[in-house]
C-alpha cells in the first residue's frame, strides 16, 4: 500500500496527488458477516477510504481482559478493507464520542472516585497506556508503512470541544509513536474549536455538515498551506428517545458535498453506513437534561441500517464520480429480506422470580453504583426492607437512569433521570415489606463533562426523611439468558417479564422486529442482543441481521419491563419504522 504524505498543500501517495474520499463504517456496529458487503458498497459508491473508531470499552471490558474475537476482530476488518482496495483512517481514541456508550471509555475507569477522564490524571493515563500497549501491536502490521491499509491515525477526538491541554494530546501522540504508529497523525475539531484541539506536528482537520467554505477557511486560517480534510462531513444525524427521526435531504447534502470537494478538500462522510447500537451500547447526551440515544444508528446515511443503498447513496455516487476514478460496476441493489411473519410468545419467565440465575446480590449499608459492582451494561436491582406500615415518601440522591419501584413485588411508580425525578410517594402495606428498585443504565453520556456518568441508584436514600440503610445490590448485565425458567403461559403477565417465542426461517435474511403494543425493554434473537424497544419512540422497530438467524426454528426473547399486550405477539417485517420526521 502507498504511504500518505501531508506536506505541502495537498495529500500525496508515494508522490502522486491523492484525494481522500472516505466514509464512516464502524465495524462494531455491523454484524461481522456483513463487513465485506458494506466495504464493497463503499467502493461501489466511489469511496477510496473508510474510517472507523475503536471502542475501548468493548475491547477491554475489564482491566487485563482483552477481546479481539468475532465482531471485535479489528485486524480482520482491516484486512477485508485492504482486500477491497480501500484505505483506512483509524480513530483509536481513547475517547471516541460516536454517540457510543461512555464515548468508548470503559466504565471501570469510574471506579476511581477522583478520576478525571480525558486529562493527564495519572490513573487515567496509566489505563490508556495499558490499552494502547495491547491494541496498537495488533494493528501495526496494517499500517501503510508496512504494506497495510491504514493511511493515518487520529489523536483523541474533538478535544477542542472538551479542553485545551495540548500536553495531554502530546502525551497521547507520544504513546501512539511509542507503540509503533509511524503513519501521519491527525486531530479533528469543529471550526470554533480548532485552535484548542490542534496539536503541533499532527495534521489538523475540521468537522462540519454545511457551510463548507467557511469551515475550510477556518482550517486554512489555523494551518495555512496544509492539505484540507473534513474528517466528519455530517450528512445526517442520530436520534434520541422521545424525539423525532432526523433526516437530511439527499440533494441538499449532495450539493454541500460537491461544494466541499470543488474547494479542493478531502472528505470523510459521517456516516457512510451507521449500523446499529446493538444490545446496551448506545450513548446519551446531558446538557442539563439527560437524553439517551436510540438503538438504531441509521443516521440517514447513504446505506441504511440494513446496508441497502438510499437516495443519498445514488446522489453521492454522482458527485464522487466527478472527483475520483469512475466506478465501472453498477450500484448495488437492496438485499433480500425475510418474508413477513408473526411470532407468538408462548412462554414467560418473570424477572423477579429468576434472580438467582441472573446475578449475585452484594450487601452494603447503601446502594452500590453499577461501577462499584464491576458492571458495565444492563440493570441493577436494589433491595431494602421497609421498617413500618403506612404512608411513605422515598427520596433518592439521583437515579441513573430509570428506576421502577416495587413494594412486595407490586409496582408503585417510576423515577426517570430524564424528567429530573427523585422522589416517590406510596403506601407500605406492612412492617417488613420489601422495597425493590430496578434501575436501568440507559446509556452513559458520550459528550462533554457528563462523561463521568456513574450508573445506578445514588444515595443517600431517605424514607420519610430518615436514611434507609441495609441494602443489597444485584447486578443484572443480562449477558446470558440461558438459565431462565420459562414456563408456558396463556395470557399476559405483568412485567418485568421475559417472553419467549419461536418462528421458522427457510432462508436467513435481514428483517425488522416490530413490537406494537409493547412498552419498554430489550430483545434478543437466538441470544443475539438486538437492542432496546420503547414505545416513546421515535424508533419503532429493531434491525435483525440475517446472520443472527438460522434455517429452521429460531428463538425470540423480549424483556418487557411493564405490561405485555394481550395479544403477546411480535411482527417480523421486511421494512423498518424509524418514526416520524416532524415533531
UniProtKB/TrEMBL annotation:
Residues 496-554 form the Beta-galactosidase galactose-binding domain. Its EC number is 3.2.1.23. Residues 367-476 form the Beta-galactosidase 1-like first all-beta domain. It is an enzyme of class 3 (hydrolase). Keywords: Glycosidase, Hydrolase. Coiled coil: none annotated. GO terms for molecular function: beta-galactosidase activity. The keyword Lyase does not apply. Residues 10-322 form the Glycoside hydrolase 35 catalytic domain. Belongs to the glycosyl hydrolase 35 family. This is Beta-galactosidase.
Amino acid at each position: 500500500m502507498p504511504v500518505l504524505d501531508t506536506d505541502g498543500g495537498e495529500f500525496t501517495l508515494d508522490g502522486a496527488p491523492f484525494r481522500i474520499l472516505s466514509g464512516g463504517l464502524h465495524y462494531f456496529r455491523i454484524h461481522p458477516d456483513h463487513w465485506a458487503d458494506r466495504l464493497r458498497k463503499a467502493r461501489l459508491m466511489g469511496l477510496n477510504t473508510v474510517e472507523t473508531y475503536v471502542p475501548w470499552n468493548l475491547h477491554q471490558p475489564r482491566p487485563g481482559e482483552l477481546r479481539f474475537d468475532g465482531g471485535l476482530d479489528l485486524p480482520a476488518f482491516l484486512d477485508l478493507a485492504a482486500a477491497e482496495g480501500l484505505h483506512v483512517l483509524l480513530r483509536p481514541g481513547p475517547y471516541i464520542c460516536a454517540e457510543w456508550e461512555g464515548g468508548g471509555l470503559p466504565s471501570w475507569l469510574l471506579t476511581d472516585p477522583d478520576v478525571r477522564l480525558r486529562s493527564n490524571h495519572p490513573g487515567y493515563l496509566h489505563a490508556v497506556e495499558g490499552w494502547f500497549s495491547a491494541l496498537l501491536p495488533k494493528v501495526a502490521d496494517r499500517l501503510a508503512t508496512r504494506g497495510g491499509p491504514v493511511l493515518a491515525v487520529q489523536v483523541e477526538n474533538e478535544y477542542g470541544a472538551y479542553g485545551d491541554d495540548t500536553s495531554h494530546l502530546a502525551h497521547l501522540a507520544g504513546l501512539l509513536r511509542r507503540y509503533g504508529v509511524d503513519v501521519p497523525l491527525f486531530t479533528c475539531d469543529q471550526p470554533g474549536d480548532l485552535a484548542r484541539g490542534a496539536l503541533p506536528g499532527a495534521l489538523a482537520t475540521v468537522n462540519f455538515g454545511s457551510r463548507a467554505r467557511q469551515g475550510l477557511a477556518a482550517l486554512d486560517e489555523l494551518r495555512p498551506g496544509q492539505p484540507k480534510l473534513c474528517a466528519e462531513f455530517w450528512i445526517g444525524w442520530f436520534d434520541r428517545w422521545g424525539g423525532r427521526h432526523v433526516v437530511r435531504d439527499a440533494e441538499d447534502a449532495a450539493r454541500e458535498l460537491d461544494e466541499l470537494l470543488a474547494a479542493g478538500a478531502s472528505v470523510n462522510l459521517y456516516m457512510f453506513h451507521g449500523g446499529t447500537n446493538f444490545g446496551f451500547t448506545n450513548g446519551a447526551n446531558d446538557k442539563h437534561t439527560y437524553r439517551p440515544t436510540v438503538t438504531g444508528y441509521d443516521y440517514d446515511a447513504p446505506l441504511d441500517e440494513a446496508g441497502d443503498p438510499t437516495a443519498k447513496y445514488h446522489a453521492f455516487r454522482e458527485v464522487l464520480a466527478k472527483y475520483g476514478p469512475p466506478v465501472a460496476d453498477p450500484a448495488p441493489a437492496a438485499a433480500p429480506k425475510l418474508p413477513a411473519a408473526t411470532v407468538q410468545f408462548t412462554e414467560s419467565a418473570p424477572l423477579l422470580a429468576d434472580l438467582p440465575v441472573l446475578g449475585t446480590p452484594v450487601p452494603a449499608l447503601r446502594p452500590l453504583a453499577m461501577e462499584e459492582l464491576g458492571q458495565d451494561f444492563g440493570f441493577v436491582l436494589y433491595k431494602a426492607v421497609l421498617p413500618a406500615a403506612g404512608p411513605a415518601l422515598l427520596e433518592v440522591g439521583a437515579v441513573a437512569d430509570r428506576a421502577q419501584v416495587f413494594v412486595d413485588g407490586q409496582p408503585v411508580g417510576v423515577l426517570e433521570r430524564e424528567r429530573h425525578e427523585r422522589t416517590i410517594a406510596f403506601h407500605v402495606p406492612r412492617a417488613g415489606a420489601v422495597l425493590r428498585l430496578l434501575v436501568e443504565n440507559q446509556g452513559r453520556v458520550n459528550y462533554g463533562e457528563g462523561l463521568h456518568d456513574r450508573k445506578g441508584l445514588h444515595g443517600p436514600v431517605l424514607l420519610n426523611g430518615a436514611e434507609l440503610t441495609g441494602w443489597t445490590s444485584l447486578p443484572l448485565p443480562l449477558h446470558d439468558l440461558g438459565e431462565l425458567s420459562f414456563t408456558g403461559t396463556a395470557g399476559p403477565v405483568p412485567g418485568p417479564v421475559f417472553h419467549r417465542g419461536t418462528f421458522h426461517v427457510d432462508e436467513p435474511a435481514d428483517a425488522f422486529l416490530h413490537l406494537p403494543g409493547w412498552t419498554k425493554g430489550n430483545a434478543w434473537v437466538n441470544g443475539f442482543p438486538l437492542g432496546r424497544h420503547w414505545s416513546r419512540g421515535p424508533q419503532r422497530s429493531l434491525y435483525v441481521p440475517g446472520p443472527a438467524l438460522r434455517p429452521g426454528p429460531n428463538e425470540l426473547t423480549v424483556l418487557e419491563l411493564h405490561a405485555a399486550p394481550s395479544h403477546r405477539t411480535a411482527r417480523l417485517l421486511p421494512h423498518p419504522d424509524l418514526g416520524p420526521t416532524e415533531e
